[in-house]
Amino acid sequence: MNIIQPSRLTFWRSVFALTAALSFLSVIQILRSGTKLGVDFSVSRAWMGVVSLLGLLGLLSLTFFALTWSRYREPLLSFAEFPEQRSKALRWISLPVLALAIAGYSLVSMLPFFQEFFSSLGWARFLVFWIFSFVGLWGIKWFRRDTPWFIALIAIVLCQSTLHLLLVYWPRVTDYPFAMGWSETSRYYYPSLFLSDKVYRREYPWPILHPTLHLLLAPPYLFDAPLWVHRAWQVGVRYVLVAAVVPALMSRLSVQGRPTRWLAGLWMFLFLFMGPIYFNLTIPVIILLLGYLRPPIKKINRLRNVGVPDRLGRISVMLGITFP
Predict the structure, then answer these.
(1) pLDDT tens digits, one per residue of 67-118
(2) Burial call 52-76: b when 16+ CB within 10 Å, e when fewer
(3) DSSP secondary structure letters along 158-183
(4) CA 23, CA 143: separation in Å to the nearest integer?
(5) Which DSSP letter does residue 207 get?
(6) Rounded to the nearest 10 degrees, what angle do helices 73-80 and 8-36 cross at?
(7) Integer Cα distance of 7 and 150 in angstroms
(8) How far is CA 30 from CA 8, 21, 45, 188, in A?
(9) 123: helix, strand or coil
(10) What are the domain boundaries of the chain?
(11) Residues 6 or more apart whose Cβ sits within 8 Å of residue 219
């Protein structure tokens, strides 16, 4: 699998256009939000400062976008690609830059101010994410100059998204005494039935509803674990089982190159983790992906030669049955 690369000019025009669009859309959202809150923009310096800064960013990006059609195009693109011109002796600087870019959005989104005023401003949050992606883009190119710009952008976006998704689930690990979601208590009661003699001092039937799921959640009952340990176990098991699908699936795909395989693996993890998947159902998927062996071509041809009906032949090939 090869990732199709856009041309140098197309890439930077897309970057400038997207930055300008996000800036102006953020300004519109902030103005509407401030109007609903009754903010007097002529008096509030903080609000006007944010709006002015975003407007300036949008105008600057729009100017860069227009300059890509002028005779100043080459100096502009050379300026945007400055990491390629840096000395290798300063390569270590890219490491803190990358760390900031990968964790920056997650750290900013945890700030009370950001959560209070930007939680409902989707374009503004997207712009913050995009700015950290741009910083990470420069960091990757500074660390590895031979990485194409488009690949570097995909890599930093996937790394940011993966880290943020993992961190979003950790607030569920708490000792809050009441249910934090729909039917959460069921995920504590049914697993306890596997160890009912230890928990309740008497025998109870095992659960018939999702027994594999609840068996996976039973280990914390082996000792007197507090509530937060049960919740941490649920989050950890989901991390591990969803992540285990990725290498099993990658073994079935022809993806060449270690960097490309890592990017594809991160995308798969994000796709699966965000989906409504019961993590216990990943176990048969992993077994199927790792355990199924494609029958050799000779066996298939042999089935056809003996005149086995087509449907029966397909079933027998799937089951690995051979005929004398």
Answers:
(1) 999 888 888 888 888 877 776 667 778 888 889 999 989 888 888 888 877 7
(2) eebeebbeebbebbeebeeeeeeeb
(3) HHHHHHHHHHHHGGG-S--SS--STT
(4) 28
(5) P
(6) 70
(7) 9
(8) 33, 14, 14, 43
(9) helix
(10) 8-172, 186-291, 295-324
(11) 233
